[in-house]
Amino acid sequence: MVLRMMASVAEFEARRISERTKEALAAAKARGGVLGDTGQVQPSSLLFASRRLLRRSRICVEFSSQLLVQV
Question: SS3 for the chain, per residue?
Fold first, then answer.
């Protein structure tokens, strides 16, 4: 009996969470917010990624030169 009560409370709470999430998404959409991935890359992300890639390539070159391997 206790398990049934706990299960029904958990189901109720799951439904409420779903309702609140849907309401929040609808409100954000009504305000003109963009939901989900736009498919566009932000310039700051590109800059971060290019710097990280450059740093990694330098590390690889330094490491391979320590092993006397030419890249």
Answer: CHHHHHHHHHHHHHHHHHHHHHHHHHHHHHCCCCCCCCCCCCHHHHHHHHHHHHHHHHHHHHHHHHCCCCC
